[in-house]
Design brief:
alpha+beta; 4-stranded antiparallel β-sheet
């Protein structure tokens, strides 16, 4: 604690500090000399291409990937083309841009993922310079070609190449250039001598930085801030101009007094800082410039590179990894010499308390008198987050906890969250993990992204512990990590399928929301089909199992699983897939072994593929269904001969099936069709296709009674049915004379009440009265009432001595005209009731 400010250097009103993050674990004989280096932001991995200028097949470059602490992650000999630039994507994939414009993508462990080209023009004119940048759309690549043109791709996952306009007066490579992202659009800022140009999709615009030193004749270097909001320009006169990236506002200009061209320059402004600052690196020298004319100078022992970060700059050399940043406000308030800030007083109070000194009370009183104890606790908590050393963090948090004891209403969330965050940060900063995140970067990155980074590095145990510690919802935390672990595990070739399947199932047994089908897919893609099948057994959702089984050509198993699910849509999906994949014979054979699938396919064929249905019945010797098929098909035929031929086929199939009823019925249909055709030809009436009922009705209605009676006899139509048909047909035709003859022809099997009702229905009461006398005694009352004969109805009801019928007649009587009749009926009703 006594040396917290030992590495602080003042610059204007702010202080800057250089913190050692790691003593590098790699063993580089020549340091970073003659290496192409790229380090990912947010404490990401480092890629080195050693000997990148070698062109001899016998001495190829070596590509090595390390963690930020120098722990090796991958190493392999580079056998592709000449690499012009290395860079990292937002998801920690390594991009290698070659001289011919081809970009190769590798994962963190050197596994090749894919490649893409920056276009034919770039390939033909070669890459001179390239920059890899991060935009709102993802990771982008900007290239300056031998044709002196810029080509831009703002998102490598959705390649859309843009060829930017020409730069006026450009004869060779520009003195410097950078990519800007403004208003969700990526632009290129180019310096050609003393002239600055902004290139966008459509135009090349000349711009002038406001207040640039007149001594400058050329802009030799430039850098853009991490957020793309600010810009720093270095001129040949040694001046560093800092302002907004839209070049509308100047923030400061400082003379470094060094006129040679630097190796690298990076923006070094902390979020919410009031002072702009940039870091310029020459051979052996690092200079920090801000608002004032003074600078901070650090001497470098080895070749180094600068890695811009959200809240500072990381400096990586062959032996050390350091972080240069403006001292955060809370830390400055507490640790600045002679500071009287509330946080500083609270820290002193806690120190005195631990010494059991009464001065602790004096410091506390001073803070409480100013009502600043809450602010003091907040400062200590915030400062703890910005400190890198765990001991300093603990001291500050103990002081904050001490101060909280004297506050009754201080919300504990800030303190608790900071403790959790620092425990996570200290775990990932460990040398073996090598992710040196600051608290500011951690909050910007979010826990989910950090978990993704750990998973990507295969640090599964640590990722799971962090998820459990932070109580992350299982589907976002532990389950997600375990799924990634399982996907990695199934790709390992050392262990047998049984052991891996068992290990995965045991590990994932209590995890919620994990899809085994995704893990099985990974196993299949790794060439382990049997393992994939074993893993699918643990998948509870058939809808997830079946697609992968089909992909693996395990059709019988896929069909069985679909049937077990009870989901007919899923069964249909598999059946249709098999239909397209297998030849007809194998397809039918497979369906025959699965009755449920066969039944569903038949249902489908009934509506969609009639011919296939016939083939299925033939193959199964299902004569009954074949007969039904021929009958249904016959109704679709327009020509009578074809229809009869199909019906004859149906008859043959029914006899083979020993279904005599269906065979006889179909033969009757054929006889009826022939009879209908004959009558059509003789009488000109349209009859073909009518049912027997419709045919007789039509014949009776047109007066062809003999032909109707012939059908009645030939097809053994029941007497009652024929009498009803003829009765209705004659009534509709109003052929009352023929109706009377028909009634007298023989005793009616349906009685004579229907004759009365039909006549009344057709408004012929006189004709109806003719049949009343023939009606049976049980129906007399109903018949008399139908023709409106109240006297007759009353006589019949009284004669039958039926109380119900008497009541029915009474209900139909009128109190004004049928008074005497009602009295008579009432007397009869009373007599019946007594008995």
């Amino acid at each position: 604690m006594a040396f917290v400010t030992a590495n602080w250097n003042p610059l204007g009103e702010a202080f800057y500090r250089k913190i050692e993050l790691y003593e590098m674990g790699w063993n580089l004989k020549d340091g970073l000399r003659e290496c192409l280096v790229a380090a990912a932001p947010y404490g990401g991995p480092i890629a080195l291409l050693k000997g990148h200028n070698r062109r001899s097949p016998s001495a190829r470059p070596q590509l090595e990937i390390y963690s930020s602490s120098g722990v090796p992650l991958a190493s392999f000999t580079w056998k592709s083309g000449v690499v012009k630039q290395l860079g990292w994507t937002v998801s920690d994939d390594l991009l290698c841009v070659q001289e011919d414009g081809t970009v190769l993508v590798y994962d963190l462990f050197g596994g090749f993922k894919r490649h893409f080209s920056m276009g034919n023009e770039v390939s033909q004119s070669q890459v001179l310079e390239t920059k890899i940048f991060h935009s709102p759309y993802g990771t982008g690549v900007a290239i300056f070609t031998g044709a002196l043109r810029f080509t831009l791709a703002t998102n490598i996952d959705d390649i859309k190449l843009r060829r930017l306009p020409e730069v006026p007066g450009l004869q060779g490579a520009p003195t410097c250039w950078a990519v800007l992202t403004q208003d969700r659009q990526s632009k290129v800022l180019v310096a050609n001598g003393s002239h600055l140009f902004v290139l966008d999709n459509t135009a090349c615009t000349h711009v002038t930085p406001p207040g640039l030193s007149p001594q400058a004749t050329s802009i030799v270097h430039m850098c853009v801030s991490f957020s793309y909001k600010y810009l720093a320009l270095l001129t040949d006169s040694g001046h560093v101009w800092m302002g907004t990236s839209n070049l509308k506002e100047k923030l400061s200009e400082v003379d470094t007094k060094i006129k040679s061209s630097p190796k690298q320059m990076a923006w070094c402004r902390r979020p919410k800082s009031q002072q702009p600052s940039a870091v310029v690196m020459w051979d052996g020298l690092l200079v920090v410039v801000g608002e004032c004319n003074e600078t901070i100078q650090y001497h470098l022992d080895d070749d180094s590179i600068l890695v811009p970060e959200l809240d500072g700059v990381r400096i990586i050399s062959g032996t050390h990894h350091e972080l240069l940043q403006e001292v955060p406000g809370a830390c400055e308030e507490i640790f600045k010499i002679a500071s009287m800030a509330p946080g500083a007083l609270l820290l002193e109070a806690h120190k005195e308390y631990e010494k059991e000194s009464q001065k602790a009370d004096e410091y506390l009183r001073e803070i409480k008198e100013q009502s600043l104890l809450s602010e003091a606790v907040r400062q200590c908590v915030e400062a703890a987050g910005h400190e890198y050393e765990p001991e300093t963090q603990k001291t500050l948090l103990r002081a904050a906890s001490f101060g909280k004891c004297f506050l009754s209403n201080f919300p504990p969330e800030q303190f608790v969250i900071m403790c959790r965050d620092l425990r996570v940060l200290n775990a990932v900063r460990d040398f073996t993990v090598g992710i040196p995140l600051t608290h500011t970067q951690f909050k910007q990155m979010t826990v989910q992204v950090l978990i993704d980074r750990l998973v990507y590095r295969k640090l599964y145990p640590l990722a799971i512990e962090i998820c459990r510690y932070l109580k992350t919802p299982e589907y976002q935390g532990v389950s997600r990590v375990l799924k990634h672990w399982a996907c990695y595990k199934v790709q390992q070739k050392e262990e047998s399928d049984e052991i891996i399947a068992k290990t995965v199932s045991v590990k994932l047994a209590d995890a919620a929301g994990i899809s085994y089908s995704e893990i099985a897919t990974k196993a299949y893609e790794s060439g382990r089909t049997e393992l994939a099948i074993k893993l699918l057994e643990f998948e509870p959702r058939s809808g997830e199992q079946v697609p992968l089984l089909l992909k693996m050509k395990k059709s019988p198993l896929a069909l069985s699983k679909a049937i077990e699910s009870g989901d007919t849509d899923l069964v249909y999906t598999v059946v249709m897939y098999l239909k397209n994949e297998l030849n007809r014979g194998d397809f039918f054979m497979m369906l025959r072994n699965q009755p449920v699938a066969l039944s569903l396919y038949k249902q489908f064929c009934k509506h969609q593929e009639q011919d296939t249905l016939k083939d299925l019945f033939n193959q199964d010797d299902d004569h009954e269904e074949l007969g039904n098929f021929y009958v249904k098909s016959s109704y679709k035929e327009q020509r009578l001969e074809a229809r009869i031929a199909l019906l004859q086929s149906a008859v043959d199939e029914y006899y083979k099936a020993k279904n005599e009823f269906s065979a006889k019925t179909t033969e009757d249909e054929m006889r009826l069709l022939r009879f209908q055709r004959k009558l059509e030809e003789e009488k000109g009436e349209t009859l073909v296709g009518f049912s027997l009922h419709e045919t007789m009705t039509t014949l009776l209605s047109v007066g062809l009674h003999k032909h109707a009676e012939q059908l009645y006899k030939d097809f053994r139509v029941p007497d009652k049915r024929f009498w009803w048909l003829k009765l209705k047909a004659l009534a509709v035709k109003e052929d009352w004379e023929e109706l009377e003859k028909f009634a007298k022809s023989k005793k009616s099997p349906i009685g004579y009440l229907p004759f009365v009702e039909v006549c009344i229905k057709h408004h012929n009461k006189p004709e109806a009265k003719k049949y009343v006398s023939k009606v049976t005694p049980e129906q007399k009352v109903k018949a008399h009432l139908a023709v409106g004969d109240m006297e007759g109805a009353a006589e019949a009801a009284i004669e039958r001595r039926n109380e119900s019928e008497i009541s029915t007649v009474l209900s139909r009587c009128s109190t004004t005209t049928d008074q005497l009749l009602m009295e008579r009926l009432n007397r009869a009703k009373a007599t019946v009731a007594k008995k």
